[in-house]
Write a structure and sequence with these properties.
The complex is a heterodimer of chains A (277) and B (355). Chain A is an alpha/beta fold. Chain A has ten helices and ten strands. In chain A, the strands form two sheets. Chain A has a six-stranded mixed sheet with strand order 6-7-8-3-9-10, sandwiched between helices. The relative contact order of chain A is 0.16. Chain B contains 14 helices and no strands. Classes of the chains: A alpha/beta (277), B mainly alpha (355).
Chain lengths: 277, 355
């Protein structure tokens, strides 16, 4: 079967005045209609991998890949206009913090409806109807009221639900969630994950879940890609995470406290220079 | 369900109405206090500066009895707090006494010169905003390219070259050499007896009178000074627009808008500029207020019979009533424009609206 997404030898680099920073260095993986977790510390290139797939890499960056195919379409080979039509409609992305990722001067309902209206020719009534349905689908209890609210008038959890609604309303097949719960309270995180879990399952979407939280990814995803310094250091089924072999992954796992165990102090990661090679 | 819904709705509406009412009251209080402060400062200046208004009227060689009578007529023999009360009362009624220079009541003079200034400043600001904002947007979107550099140089020149020099140069080129425009003044002398202004805004008056020959002449007169003031405010507005836009284009919600698949046009104009418009309103309002009070040099170069020229002339002739009256009028305009930009700000930014 043809994979939904095929990433083969992806490189993203940022030229600066003095040197070129390689953010992503030859990342490869494939994705079906499944949940793939990408974990790594900040600066490991996980977000830039996600943005490169979306086509949201900053204009000054250089991006190249052996193959970068979505549903058989070579993403780096098509014109920008065609690429834009894919965004929001067939592949879509949830950002980290709804406080910054929602337009502060546009009502929530209009922002969600805007996704629809930029991909389909539909009337006011229909776009409003489908926006309200989508707000209900992300478990917002009073969609009519929330439709007219502005981002500053809702809580973080509510804002992130609106974000999910905005990115899923046009029915994409692939969703990239870039740290979707990192800016939220712990109690709200679970709600958001549950909503995401249900929608991804119901709609049969592919999901790339980018996070620095190893445990969260292990419990939420089918497969895990571990990144370090712009490279994939290990790729394994989530269930097999405990049997990870790469010393970086092992080191991370060892740093986590376990219930019923007395370890003081907790071990910290001892980085080896050869991991970054 | 619907019963509780409407009740909640009614409650919200009532809360909203009371919030708006309290905002209005606060606005009125702010205006009142600011205006009182303006009057106090101008009163103080009028008493402190070393010009004796009595001498200015009766002259150096008047006998002591005449000086004394004039002093009593002006109310200058009263204690200061009484003088201030009279002053405030007069100012509230638009009564600033007579101008020594023109012998008209100051308010009559101001009513004559103010429209000339407003007409010029409004046109200048319109030009500045309508060209400056798109230029600033262009420079921000094409940051670092040739277009950006050109816009920045245009801005820098407008910002740093003295306006009177540019004015003289423009007169020399477009009026003296090329004869494309009319010279200094608002209107040619041939219209002096045929053209009777209604509102004092000549372009508007000519339209109302359907006097198209006069309209063309007035336009030929105003086009140079208005373009210069426009260029001046364009320089400022385009620079500010560029920096506000760069700030907005770097925000996360722009990434989100791209992820939604919106077109670049929509992202720039409907998302980024809509957010940049909030601080831009203040910038444009301040630049407009600046043109209203500060176009003295332009008015001098173009012999434009406006408020700036009037106040400068009065100042040079120690005509304090006229100077203070003009200052208060300018101050009032400032207060009004600030109030307006505050209201506009609230309309543009939902975060500043009362909930």
């Amino acid at each position: 079967m043809k994979p939904l997404l095929l990433v083969d030898d992806l490189w993203v680099s940022f030229p600066t005045r003095t040197e070129t920073v390689e953010a992503v260095r030859g990342v490869s993986f494939t994705l079906g209609r499944e949940r793939l977790g990408i974990v790594g510390e900040s600066g490991s290139g996980k977000s830039q991998t996600g943005r490169a797939i979306m086509g949201l890499t900053p204009a000054n960056a250089h991006i190249r890949a052996g193959r970068l195919q979505f549903d058989g379409i070579e993403l780096l080979g098509i014109p920008a206009r065609q690429r834009r039509r894919l965004r929001g409609k067939r592949l879509s992305m949830i950002l980290q913090d709804p406080k910054y990722s929602l337009n502060p001067v546009m009502s929530i309902g209009r922002q969600i409806a805007e996704t629809l209206r930029s991909h389909e020719t539909i009337g006011n009534a229909e776009s409003r109807e489908r926006t309200l349905e989508m707000l209900e689908a992300v478990q917002i209890r009073n969609p009519h009221r929330v439709y007219d609210l502005y981002p500053h008038e809702v809580s973080g959890g509510m804002g992130q639900r609106a974000m999910i609604a905005m990115m899923l309303v046009a029915g994409p097949e692939l969703l990239i969630a870039d740290e979707p719960t990192s800016a939220l309270d712990v109690t709200v995180q679970l709600d958001i994950l549950r909503i995401l879990d249900r929608l991804v399952g119901e709609r049969g979407m592919g999901l790339i879940f980018i996070s620095h939280d190893l445990r969260l990814v292990a419990s939420f995803c089918d497969r895990v890609v571990v990144m370090y310094a712009g490279k994939v250091v290990e790729q394994l089924p989530a269930a097999a995470l405990a049997r990870a072999e790469h010393p970086y992954t092992r080191g991370l796992l060892d740093c986590m406290p376990k219930i019923g165990e007395q370890r003081h102090p907790l071990p910290v990661l001892e980085r080896q220079p050869e991991w970054a090679l | 369900m619907s019963g509780t819904g409407t009740r909640a709705e009614a409650g919200r509406a009532a809360r909203r109405a009371s919030a708006i009412a309290s905002t209005l009251i606060r606005f009125a209080a702010v205006v009142a206090v600011t205006y009182l402060g303006l009057l106090a400062v101008t009163f103080f200046i009028g008493r402190v500066i070393p010009i004796d208004p009595v001498l200015a009227i009766v002259g150096d060689r008047a006998p002591a009895s005449v000086v004394e009578r004039a002093r009593e007529e002006l109310g200058l023999n009263l204690p200061y707090h009484q003088q201030f009360l009279i002053y405030v009362k007069g100012a509230l009624q638009g009564e600033f006494g007579r101008s020594v220079l023109t012998t008209n009541p100051v308010m009559t003079d101001i009513r004559r010169v103010l429209p000339a200034t407003i007409e010029l400043a409004t046109l200048g600001t319109l030009i500045g905003a309508l060209i400056g904002v798109p230029l600033g947007v262009l420079a921000a979107v094409r940051r670092g390219t040739l277009a950006d550099q050109i816009v920045r140089i245009i801005g820098l020149i407008g910002y740093s070259v003295p306006i009177f020099w540019l004015g003289l140069l423009a007169l020399l080129v477009f009026y003296a050499r090329l004869r494309w425009t009319a010279g200094p003044g608002r209107i040619d002398v041939v219209y002096e007896y045929t053209f009777t202004p209604i509102t004092g805004f000549y372009l508007l008056d000519a339209m109302l009178l359907r006097d198209w020959a006069a309209f063309r002449d007035i336009f030929a007169h105003i086009v140079l000074p208005a373009s210069l003031l426009g260029y001046f405010s364009l320089a400022y507005i385009s620079r500010m627009t560029r920096s506000f836009m760069l700030n907005e284009l770097g925000q996360e919600y722009i990434v989100a808008a791209r992820a939604k698949g919106l077109s670049e046009t929509r992202i720039v104009w409907a998302h980024a500029l809509r957010n940049a418009a909030v601080p831009l309103v203040t910038v444009i309002a301040l630049s407009y207020a600046g043109l209203l009070e500060g176009s003295v040099l332009t008015e001098t170069v173009f012999s434009w019979p406006g408020l700036g020229l009037y106040i400068t002339n009065s100042l040079q002739n120690a005509d304090m009533n006229a100077v203070l009256g003009g200052t208060i009028v300018i101050g009032s305009i400032f207060i009004g424009i600030n109030l307006l930009s505050d209201l506009l700000y609230r309309m543009l930014d939902p975060r500043t609206r009362p909930r």
